[in-house]
Amino acid sequence: MALERKDKIVIIGTHGPEDPERATLPFVMATAAQTMDTEAVVILQGGGVLLAEKNIHEYVFAGGLPPLRDLLKTFLEEGGKLLVCTPCVQYRMIEQSKLIEGAELIAGARVVQESITAAAVLNY
């Protein structure tokens, strides 16, 4: 019998590959939450949406932290939700077909919905 998840955490990432440490930290925290049987939702906004573009995360490395490609893979395989700001993607002219598998485009109301149903919200 699988355990039901008791808690949910939302982690908002606003930094992309230009700041590898802050780009990686949301996924460090999300995968840590998953090991604690907590539902993890990562929302990418602003420059953070670049991490949802195919192949970009492959080249993000922050000293002392696991490679982003490994964290993102684990996060998605463990059922994490990766939500990506639609206006932010449109502003950067990223085509939906260029987003990684598992990325879901959303707007502001969904950010609010996810946040008010979470036990905690972190922002990086």
Q: What does this entry look like structurally?
A:
The chain is 33% helix and 22% strand. It has helices at residues 20-35, 68-77, 86-91, 108-116; strands spanning 7-13, 38-44, 81-85, 103-106, 120-123. Helix 1 (20-35) packs parallel to helix 2. The protein has a five-stranded parallel sheet with strand order 4-3-2-1-5. It has 124 residues and is an alpha/beta fold. It has four helices and five strands. It has one domain (7-123): DsrEFH-like (Hypothetical Protein Ychn, Chain: A, 3-Layer(aba) Sandwich), CATH 3.40.1260.10.
Number of domains: 1
The largest beta-sheet arranges its strands as 4-3-2-1-5
By CATH, the superfamily comes out as: DsrEFH-like
Which segments are poorly predicted (pLDDT under 50) over 5 or more consecutive residues? none
Count of distinct strands = 5
Query: Can you give the helix content as a percent range?
Result: 25-40%
- H/E element sequence: EHEHEHEHE
CATH fold group: Hypothetical Protein Ychn, Chain: A
* CATH architecture annotation: 3-Layer(aba) Sandwich
What proportion of the residues form beta strands (DSSP E)? 15-25%
First and last CA, distance: 35 Å
Structural class: alpha/beta
CATH class: Alpha Beta
Overall morphology: globular
Biggest sheet, in brief? 5 strands, parallel
Name the average pLDDT: 95
What's the helix count? 4
Q: Helices, strands, pairings?
A:
Elements: E1 7-13, H1 20-35, E2 38-44, H2 68-77, E3 81-85, H3 86-91, E4 103-106, H4 108-116, E5 120-123
List the defining traits of the structure above:
alpha/beta; 4 helices; 5 strands; about 35% helix; about 20% strand
